[in-house]
Amino acid sequence: MMALRAHARGGPEQLVYEQAPAPSAGPGEVLVAVHAAAITFAELLAWDLQWTTRDGKDRTPVIPSHETSGIVAGLGAGVAGQAAGEEVVGLIGFDRDGAAAEYVVVPGASLAAKPQSLSHVAAATLPLAALTAWQALADHAGLQPGEQVLVQGGAGGVGIFAVQLAAILGGHVTATGHSADAGLVRDLGAERFISAEAGCPSQAAGGFDVVIDTVGGAVLDGSYGLLREGGRLVTLGAPPDQELAGRYKGPRHVLRRRAGR
Ligand SMILES: NC(=O)c1ccc[n+]([C@@H]2O[C@H](COP(=O)([O-])OP(=O)(O)OC[C@H]3O[C@@H](n4cnc5c(N)ncnc54)[C@H](OP(=O)(O)O)[C@@H]3O)[C@@H](O)[C@H]2O)c1
Q: How far is the CA of 110 from the centre of ligand 1 (A)?
Protein backbone atom coordinates (compact mmCIF):
# COMPACT_ATOMS: atom_id res chain seq x y z
CA MET A 1 0.00 0.00 0.00
CA MET A 2 1.02 3.66 -0.20
CA ALA A 3 1.66 5.47 3.08
CA LEU A 4 3.07 8.66 4.49
CA ARG A 5 5.99 7.73 6.73
CA ALA A 6 8.50 9.58 8.90
CA HIS A 7 11.95 8.05 9.08
CA ALA A 8 13.24 10.56 11.65
CA ARG A 9 11.87 13.04 14.17
CA GLY A 10 11.09 16.51 12.94
CA GLY A 11 8.35 18.33 11.15
CA PRO A 12 6.39 17.58 8.00
CA GLU A 13 9.64 17.73 5.97
CA GLN A 14 10.45 14.29 7.35
CA LEU A 15 7.40 12.69 5.76
CA VAL A 16 7.87 10.51 2.70
CA TYR A 17 5.01 9.21 0.54
CA GLU A 18 6.11 5.69 -0.30
CA GLN A 19 5.31 2.00 -0.49
CA ALA A 20 4.83 0.33 2.90
CA PRO A 21 3.83 -3.19 3.92
CA ALA A 22 0.04 -3.58 4.03
CA PRO A 23 -1.07 -4.42 7.58
CA SER A 24 -3.32 -7.33 8.48
CA ALA A 25 -5.75 -7.55 11.37
CA GLY A 26 -4.74 -9.76 14.29
CA PRO A 27 -7.07 -11.13 16.98
CA GLY A 28 -9.47 -8.43 18.17
CA GLU A 29 -8.33 -6.02 15.45
CA VAL A 30 -10.05 -4.49 12.43
CA LEU A 31 -8.53 -3.56 9.08
CA VAL A 32 -9.85 -0.16 8.03
CA ALA A 33 -9.67 1.29 4.51
CA VAL A 34 -8.77 4.88 5.31
CA HIS A 35 -10.96 7.60 3.81
CA ALA A 36 -9.67 10.46 5.97
CA ALA A 37 -6.91 10.83 8.53
CA ALA A 38 -6.25 13.64 11.01
CA ILE A 39 -2.84 14.61 12.36
CA THR A 40 -1.62 16.86 15.15
CA PHE A 41 1.76 18.50 14.67
CA ALA A 42 2.78 17.53 18.18
CA GLU A 43 2.86 13.92 16.97
CA LEU A 44 5.93 14.64 14.88
CA LEU A 45 7.73 16.80 17.41
CA ALA A 46 7.52 15.71 20.96
CA TRP A 47 5.64 12.52 21.63
CA ASP A 48 8.35 9.98 22.42
CA LEU A 49 5.84 7.17 22.50
CA GLN A 50 5.21 7.43 18.81
CA TRP A 51 8.72 6.34 17.92
CA THR A 52 8.81 3.25 20.07
CA THR A 53 6.64 0.28 20.80
CA ARG A 54 5.15 -0.09 24.26
CA ASP A 55 8.18 -2.12 25.33
CA GLY A 56 10.55 0.60 24.11
CA LYS A 57 11.68 -0.86 20.74
CA ASP A 58 12.37 1.65 17.96
CA ARG A 59 9.71 1.28 15.29
CA THR A 60 10.77 3.80 12.65
CA PRO A 61 9.69 4.42 9.96
CA VAL A 62 6.38 5.37 11.54
CA ILE A 63 3.06 6.21 9.94
CA PRO A 64 1.50 9.25 11.69
CA SER A 65 -2.15 10.22 12.20
CA HIS A 66 -3.97 8.67 15.09
CA GLU A 67 -7.54 9.59 14.21
CA THR A 68 -9.29 8.18 11.21
CA SER A 69 -12.56 7.72 9.40
CA GLY A 70 -12.96 4.87 6.95
CA ILE A 71 -14.63 1.63 5.99
CA VAL A 72 -14.14 -1.78 7.60
CA ALA A 73 -12.15 -3.90 5.12
CA GLY A 74 -11.31 -6.94 7.23
CA LEU A 75 -11.87 -8.47 10.65
CA GLY A 76 -9.43 -10.31 12.89
CA ALA A 77 -10.48 -13.29 14.95
CA GLY A 78 -12.89 -12.61 17.77
CA VAL A 79 -14.05 -9.16 16.68
CA ALA A 80 -17.65 -8.43 17.62
CA GLY A 81 -19.62 -5.29 16.82
CA GLN A 82 -18.13 -4.46 13.42
CA ALA A 83 -18.87 -5.83 9.96
CA ALA A 84 -17.17 -5.47 6.59
CA GLY A 85 -18.34 -2.37 4.72
CA GLU A 86 -19.35 -0.39 7.81
CA GLU A 87 -18.30 3.24 8.12
CA VAL A 88 -16.26 3.77 11.29
CA VAL A 89 -14.20 6.36 13.14
CA GLY A 90 -11.29 5.32 15.28
CA LEU A 91 -8.67 6.48 17.74
CA ILE A 92 -5.36 4.73 17.21
CA GLY A 93 -2.76 4.20 19.94
CA PHE A 94 0.37 6.32 19.66
CA ASP A 95 2.64 3.28 19.94
CA ARG A 96 1.42 1.77 16.67
CA ASP A 97 1.17 2.85 13.05
CA GLY A 98 -1.40 5.51 12.30
CA ALA A 99 -3.82 6.20 9.48
CA ALA A 100 -1.80 8.26 6.97
CA ALA A 101 -1.99 5.28 4.62
CA GLU A 102 -4.40 3.33 2.48
CA TYR A 103 -5.09 0.92 5.34
CA VAL A 104 -4.71 0.93 9.12
CA VAL A 105 -5.28 -1.76 11.72
CA VAL A 106 -7.22 -0.63 14.79
CA PRO A 107 -8.34 -2.62 17.85
CA GLY A 108 -12.07 -3.23 17.46
CA ALA A 109 -12.71 -1.62 20.84
CA SER A 110 -11.20 1.66 19.58
CA LEU A 111 -13.73 2.03 16.74
CA ALA A 112 -17.20 3.57 16.71
CA ALA A 113 -19.82 4.04 14.02
CA LYS A 114 -19.18 7.13 11.89
CA PRO A 115 -21.95 9.70 12.33
CA GLN A 116 -24.00 9.45 9.13
CA SER A 117 -24.45 13.21 8.88
CA LEU A 118 -20.70 13.83 8.62
CA SER A 119 -18.27 13.38 5.75
CA HIS A 120 -15.24 11.19 6.37
CA VAL A 121 -13.07 14.33 6.50
CA ALA A 122 -15.19 15.93 9.21
CA ALA A 123 -15.58 12.66 11.10
CA ALA A 124 -11.81 12.08 11.25
CA THR A 125 -11.44 15.18 13.43
CA LEU A 126 -13.64 13.70 16.15
CA PRO A 127 -11.87 10.89 17.96
CA LEU A 128 -9.00 12.63 19.75
CA ALA A 129 -10.10 16.23 20.26
CA ALA A 130 -13.77 15.51 20.88
CA LEU A 131 -13.02 12.59 23.19
CA THR A 132 -10.60 14.78 25.13
CA ALA A 133 -13.30 17.43 25.52
CA TRP A 134 -15.81 14.78 26.58
CA GLN A 135 -13.42 13.30 29.14
CA ALA A 136 -12.70 16.75 30.54
CA LEU A 137 -16.36 17.72 30.88
CA ALA A 138 -18.06 14.45 31.71
CA ASP A 139 -15.46 12.15 33.27
CA HIS A 140 -13.32 14.68 35.14
CA ALA A 141 -15.50 17.72 35.76
CA GLY A 142 -18.79 15.83 36.03
CA LEU A 143 -20.61 18.80 34.47
CA GLN A 144 -24.26 18.93 35.50
CA PRO A 145 -27.15 20.63 33.66
CA GLY A 146 -27.52 24.25 34.71
CA GLU A 147 -23.91 24.68 35.82
CA GLN A 148 -21.77 27.62 34.74
CA VAL A 149 -18.78 26.45 32.68
CA LEU A 150 -15.85 28.44 31.33
CA VAL A 151 -13.88 27.07 28.37
CA GLN A 152 -10.50 28.78 28.17
CA GLY A 153 -9.52 28.70 24.47
CA GLY A 154 -12.98 28.01 23.08
CA ALA A 155 -11.93 28.26 19.42
CA GLY A 156 -9.07 25.74 19.64
CA GLY A 157 -8.87 22.10 18.58
CA VAL A 158 -10.30 20.82 21.87
CA GLY A 159 -12.13 24.04 22.74
CA ILE A 160 -14.59 23.90 19.83
CA PHE A 161 -15.76 20.50 21.03
CA ALA A 162 -15.74 21.53 24.70
CA VAL A 163 -18.02 24.49 23.96
CA GLN A 164 -20.47 22.37 21.97
CA LEU A 165 -20.51 19.42 24.35
CA ALA A 166 -20.83 21.64 27.43
CA ALA A 167 -23.88 23.29 25.89
CA ILE A 168 -25.34 19.89 24.90
CA LEU A 169 -24.81 18.69 28.49
CA GLY A 170 -26.93 21.62 29.66
CA GLY A 171 -24.17 23.91 30.90
CA HIS A 172 -24.24 27.69 30.60
CA VAL A 173 -21.11 28.22 28.55
CA THR A 174 -18.70 31.14 28.66
CA ALA A 175 -15.65 30.89 26.42
CA THR A 176 -12.44 32.86 26.01
CA GLY A 177 -10.44 33.32 22.83
CA HIS A 178 -9.09 35.90 20.45
CA SER A 179 -11.68 38.48 19.47
CA ALA A 180 -11.75 37.33 15.83
CA ASP A 181 -13.17 34.00 17.06
CA ALA A 182 -16.09 35.50 18.99
CA GLY A 183 -18.69 34.75 16.31
CA LEU A 184 -17.53 31.17 15.81
CA VAL A 185 -17.54 30.41 19.52
CA ARG A 186 -20.97 31.94 20.04
CA ASP A 187 -22.30 29.94 17.06
CA LEU A 188 -21.00 26.78 18.75
CA GLY A 189 -23.16 27.44 21.80
CA ALA A 190 -21.31 29.86 24.09
CA GLU A 191 -23.68 32.29 25.81
CA ARG A 192 -20.83 34.65 26.68
CA PHE A 193 -17.47 35.38 25.06
CA ILE A 194 -14.52 37.00 26.79
CA SER A 195 -11.76 38.29 24.53
CA ALA A 196 -8.15 37.35 25.30
CA GLU A 197 -7.17 40.84 24.16
CA ALA A 198 -9.03 42.18 27.18
CA GLY A 199 -6.65 40.18 29.42
CA CYS A 200 -7.51 37.34 31.79
CA PRO A 201 -11.15 37.27 32.85
CA SER A 202 -11.47 38.97 36.21
CA GLN A 203 -12.84 37.24 39.24
CA ALA A 204 -15.97 39.30 38.74
CA ALA A 205 -16.59 37.22 35.61
CA GLY A 206 -16.16 34.10 37.69
CA GLY A 207 -18.05 31.97 40.13
CA PHE A 208 -17.81 29.15 37.62
CA ASP A 209 -18.77 25.63 38.63
CA VAL A 210 -16.37 24.23 36.03
CA VAL A 211 -13.37 25.68 34.17
CA ILE A 212 -11.81 23.73 31.29
CA ASP A 213 -8.36 25.16 30.52
CA THR A 214 -6.95 24.30 27.08
CA VAL A 215 -4.43 27.17 27.01
CA GLY A 216 -2.11 26.75 30.00
CA GLY A 217 0.47 29.20 31.34
CA ALA A 218 -0.89 32.45 32.73
CA VAL A 219 -4.39 31.52 31.57
CA LEU A 220 -4.27 28.38 33.70
CA ASP A 221 -2.81 30.29 36.65
CA GLY A 222 -5.67 32.77 36.44
CA SER A 223 -8.29 30.04 36.23
CA TYR A 224 -8.22 28.96 39.89
CA GLY A 225 -9.65 32.23 41.10
CA LEU A 226 -12.51 32.05 38.62
CA LEU A 227 -14.05 29.02 40.30
CA ARG A 228 -16.71 29.18 42.92
CA GLU A 229 -15.69 27.45 46.12
CA GLY A 230 -15.75 23.73 45.42
CA GLY A 231 -15.70 24.26 41.65
CA ARG A 232 -13.76 21.93 39.36
CA LEU A 233 -10.81 22.95 37.19
CA VAL A 234 -9.70 20.57 34.43
CA THR A 235 -6.36 21.29 32.75
CA LEU A 236 -5.18 19.71 29.52
CA GLY A 237 -1.57 20.76 29.23
CA ALA A 238 0.03 20.62 32.68
CA PRO A 239 -0.71 19.28 36.15
CA PRO A 240 -2.56 21.66 38.46
CA ASP A 241 -0.56 23.74 40.94
CA GLN A 242 -1.19 21.96 44.22
CA GLU A 243 -0.78 25.12 46.28
CA LEU A 244 -3.37 26.97 44.22
CA ALA A 245 -5.54 23.88 43.96
CA GLY A 246 -5.47 23.51 47.73
CA ARG A 247 -7.54 26.64 48.11
CA TYR A 248 -10.36 25.01 46.17
CA LYS A 249 -12.08 21.67 46.48
CA GLY A 250 -11.27 18.99 43.93
CA PRO A 251 -9.51 20.54 40.90
CA ARG A 252 -8.81 17.80 38.36
CA HIS A 253 -6.25 17.19 35.68
CA VAL A 254 -6.56 15.53 32.28
CA LEU A 255 -3.30 14.07 31.04
CA ARG A 256 -2.63 15.08 27.45
CA ARG A 257 -2.10 11.52 26.34
CA ARG A 258 -4.91 9.96 28.26
CA ALA A 259 -7.57 10.42 25.59
CA GLY A 260 -8.85 7.11 24.34
CA ARG A 261 -6.03 5.06 25.91
N1 LIG B 1 -6.09 18.64 20.00
C2 LIG B 1 -6.21 17.47 20.60
O3 LIG B 1 -6.75 16.51 20.05
C4 LIG B 1 -5.71 17.29 22.02
C5 LIG B 1 -5.91 16.06 22.65
C6 LIG B 1 -5.47 15.91 23.98
C7 LIG B 1 -4.85 16.96 24.62
N8 LIG B 1 -4.63 18.14 23.95
C9 LIG B 1 -3.96 19.22 24.69
O10 LIG B 1 -4.92 20.23 24.88
C11 LIG B 1 -4.30 21.51 24.85
C12 LIG B 1 -4.98 22.36 23.78
O13 LIG B 1 -4.81 21.70 22.53
P14 LIG B 1 -5.56 22.26 21.24
O15 LIG B 1 -5.25 21.29 20.15
O16 LIG B 1 -6.96 22.57 21.56
O17 LIG B 1 -4.73 23.61 21.01
P18 LIG B 1 -5.14 24.86 20.12
O19 LIG B 1 -5.92 24.42 18.92
O20 LIG B 1 -3.91 25.66 19.92
O21 LIG B 1 -6.18 25.66 21.05
C22 LIG B 1 -5.83 26.64 21.97
C23 LIG B 1 -6.75 27.82 21.74
O24 LIG B 1 -6.52 28.80 22.75
C25 LIG B 1 -6.44 30.07 22.12
N26 LIG B 1 -5.69 30.98 22.98
C27 LIG B 1 -4.36 31.26 22.98
N28 LIG B 1 -4.09 32.16 23.96
C29 LIG B 1 -5.25 32.44 24.58
C30 LIG B 1 -5.63 33.30 25.65
N31 LIG B 1 -4.72 34.04 26.29
N32 LIG B 1 -6.92 33.33 26.03
C33 LIG B 1 -7.85 32.56 25.41
N34 LIG B 1 -7.57 31.76 24.37
C35 LIG B 1 -6.28 31.69 23.96
C36 LIG B 1 -5.77 29.78 20.81
O37 LIG B 1 -5.95 30.83 19.89
P38 LIG B 1 -4.85 31.06 18.72
O39 LIG B 1 -4.69 29.75 18.01
O40 LIG B 1 -5.47 32.12 17.89
O41 LIG B 1 -3.60 31.49 19.43
C42 LIG B 1 -6.50 28.51 20.40
O43 LIG B 1 -7.74 28.82 19.80
C44 LIG B 1 -2.82 21.25 24.58
O45 LIG B 1 -2.15 21.20 25.82
C46 LIG B 1 -2.84 19.88 23.92
O47 LIG B 1 -1.61 19.20 24.08
C48 LIG B 1 -5.06 18.33 22.68
A: 24
172 φ, ψ to 5°? Answer: -95, 110
Q: Is the peptide bond prior to 115 cis by the omega test (within 30 degrees of 0)?
A: no
Considering the entire predicted model, what is its pTM? 0.88
Measured from the Cα of 216, ligand 1's closest atom is 45
How confident is the model at residue 255, as a pLDDT?
40
138 and 106 co-located in one domain: no
In a domain, 261, yes or no: no
Q: Are residues 29 and 136 in the same domain?
A: no
Looking at the 3D structure of the chain, how many domains does it have?
Answer: 2
The phi, psi pair for 24, rounded to 5°, reads -130, 150
Percent of the chain with pLDDT over 90: 66
CB-count burial class (<10 Å; 0-12, 13-18, 19+) for 231: buried
Torsion of CA 155, 205, 148, 212, to 10 degrees: 40
Query: In a mutational test of the pocket of ligand 1, which residue from 137, 158, 193 has the highest number of ligand atoms less than 8 Å from its CB?
Result: 158
